[in-house]
Design brief:
mainly alpha, 8 helices, three-stranded mixed β-sheet, elongated
Length: 231
Amino acid sequence: MLMYYIILGAIALVSWLVSNKLKNKFKHYSKVHLRNGMSGAEIAEKMLADHGIRDVKVISTPGMLTDHYNPANKTVNLSEGVYNQRNASAAAVAAHECGHAVQHATAYEWLTMRSKLVPVVSVTSGMSTWVVFGGIMLGAAAGVGFGYWVAVAGLVMMGFATLFSFITLPVEYDASNRALAWLKNKNMLSQEEYKGSEDALKWAARTYLVAAIGSLATLVYWALQVLGGRD
């Protein structure tokens, strides 16, 4: 268990560092005001229109960094700081979330795969560790039958969460690439503004990378505890 806590601590530290860096980046680039004077909401609406997407609404949602695209009701949800602001950070986030809307409209395969996993992960992710731990308590580490299969069931649940986190990577990176390509091709930003948006999105993507690595490390650790006890 000590090694597990060390791994969790290391991952939590890296996650905090990346998250803190991301917040600082967005704070810094929020001071880079757009020469075109467009708000995040206006940029989102223009990107959707330029891609021929007419059935997606751009709405404001409370909180900070709560921005997301909801494929269920086809809404681009922008946090208050993005929806109303007119800076490089707002432009980056708004265009990125619209990138997901474009993925949905074009049936991007990785987004489709992730959407299919959402119902499974929403049920299994919260209980997987407890199921594995319960199986170990029932004798999985010693190779006892019932406990072993309980633990394996927990590993399968955990595996879905890990798979989900890795499928999320191409989805997020692709959305950022679509956003940056549109911002550049349409000359929406100056060179300084574009560099700021690009840097902000790179750090946002790194948060997903850290999460995926952390999920994999946790899965490997528990798999070793369960399967390593078998002769």
